[in-house]
Amino acid sequence: MTPGLSPTHQVRLARPSLDLDAAQRFYADGLGLRVLHRSSHDEFAPLLMLGLPGAAWHLELTHAHHVHVPPTPTGEDLLVIYLDDPVPPELIARLEAHGGTRVPALNLYWDRWGVTIRDPDGYRLVLCQRGWSNDP
């Protein structure tokens, strides 16, 4: 293990968003993440933090008001969630109803083992039916 790092350290994935309301509908109402914090009058930029209570990670979306920072996603900018079960069709439908678009994956591995959905800012969420273990 790298000195100073621990599996219990918090991880924040931060990205720009053009519309925090649309992002909240997709990730909270569609995917089921909780809004951990939302600020519209932050000193630096409005932000939306989403995640699961007790998890060691969260997603932070920001909308800079002092400079235009557009999202610039590529086909390999992925947020992958390992479900360890088949992807529920009702979850896909809910994500699509809340602003997501099902798209083919750039890497065919994800089409074989899951479903790729583009969020309102163009970033890709992969729901993978496989489980994940970091054991070698």
Automatic annotation (TrEMBL):
Q: Which SUPFAM superfamilies match?
A: Glyoxalase/Bleomycin resistance protein/Dihydroxybiphenyl dioxygenase
Out of the domains of life, which is the source?
Answer: Bacteria
| Limits of the VOC domain | 6-130
* CDD domains, per database record: VOC
What name does this protein carry?
Glyoxalase/bleomycin resistance protein/dioxygenase
